[in-house]
Amino acid sequence: MDKGKISVGRPRLLVDFAIVLRLRDVEYMGWSRMADAYRKITGQYISRDTVKRRYLEAKARGGIRAISRD
User: What is the pTM of this model?
Assistant: First the structure.
């Protein structure tokens, strides 16, 4: 563990970030619809606030891009 850094919760996977980026930036979904779609994709419950937080974290990380279906 890094000195002075406390990690809480499960680690964020790049897949989590890719899913929320794709749903928001490619599919143009709102927060509630994103949460519903995320639940269907992963089988995990997620609130719309958590979806929004993960999206903002993914944007802040930069360099992760959603892949289009083209």
Answer: 0.65
